[in-house]
Amino acid sequence: MTPADLIILCSLMTRTLCVAPQMPDFKTGEKIINGPFWHEVFTEVYEDLEDELSTTTSEPLPFFEDDPSTNNVTAQLGSRVHLHCRIHDLGDKTISWVRRRGEEIHLLSFGRHTYSADSRYSLAFEQPNNWRLLIQYVSERDEGFYECQISTHPPLVRRVYLVVVVPKVEIVDERGKPLQDKFYKEGSIIELRCVVSEVPEPSRQVNWKHGNRLLNYDTKRGGVSVKTETLPNGALSRLYIANANRKDSGNYTCSLADFAATAVSVHVLRGENPLAMQRGGVSNVTHSLRALLISYIS
């Protein structure tokens, strides 16, 4: 009941109860209260309560801004990736990143300092509130759970799962089946098709090599061209070599940067039917090599 309520209540009571008793000044410690003491006592208590309420306002708790749908992150082998952790109302709390492998927990960063022995990991803070973890040259062993933790009690945790995609590279025939050997007649056009898949970011260049010689920008032989088109999940690259000769025989490699590669053995034949050799498959490779050897001897 407030002092005002008390005065109103007193006015409604009988005269005997309403009239404040004529008391001498009341002394409490070093303070003298003149006249009716309850008004000043209640007023003092009320003011003390106001002061107490004004000093007990709670600070807002920190919270994660990122949507839970972003908890899965995909990265291509060999690329760099950021794991985001946007936090509001951090206050005086501290952020740490840890790597969880089964029951093992490895500290990667604390505050703005990196504690991982692996130099590929670092904290890349982005204003105003993104405590990003940067992983460079992503490898297959980087796949797994990562946790962004706020030092509350108990800690607030955002878990991120990193998926590492390994590109798939295949040299295929006209039906899209992988090739190990390809036969051509001397004077014909060599055409090889390379399909790159499982690449979420098809920005890497597809390279062709004959042995150790890069063919993408080859001008020494002449008649060599490479055409590559980007697909939604990879790329299709074609190698053309005009007027094939026996020097063009050998291993041809198609690679996506240094991350994935495949090879095919090309045989340029003189006087034999390449289609027949193609149908015979690998079993006829030895026969073709014998024929080439006999032609060289003769």
Account of the 3D structure:
- By secondary structure, this protein is α+β, with helices and mostly antiparallel strands.
- The protein has 5 helices and 22 strands.
- A hairpin with a 2-residue loop joins strand 17 and strand 18.
- The chain is rod-shaped and about 90 Å long.
- The C terminus is likely disordered.
Write the layout of secondary structure elements.
Blueprint: H1 3-11, H2 15-18, E1 26-28, E2 31-33, H3 38-54, E3 63-64, E4 72-76, E5 81-83, E6 87-88, E7 95-101, E8 104-110, E9 113-114, E10 121-126, E11 130-135, E12 144-150, E13 156-165, E14 168-172, E15 181-185, E16 190-197, E17 206-210, E18 213-214, E19 224-231, E20 234-241, E21 250-256, E22 260-269, H4 274-280, H5 285-297
Parallel strand pairs: 4-13, 15-22
Antiparallel strand pairs: 1-2, 3-6, 5-11, 7-8, 7-12, 8-9, 10-11, 12-13, 14-16, 16-20, 17-18, 17-21, 19-20, 21-22
Number of strands: 22
Helix content range of the residues, please? 10-25%
Give me the side-by-side strand order of the main sheet: 4-13-12-7-8-9
Query: Helix-strand pattern, N to C?
Result: HHEEHEEEEEEEEEEEEEEEEEEEEHH
| Main sheet: strands, sense, barrel | 6 strands, mixed
Keywords:
22 strands, rod-shaped
What's this model, at a glance?
The protein has 298 residues and is an alpha+beta fold. It is 17% helix and 41% strand. The radius of gyration is 40 Å and the shape is rod-shaped.
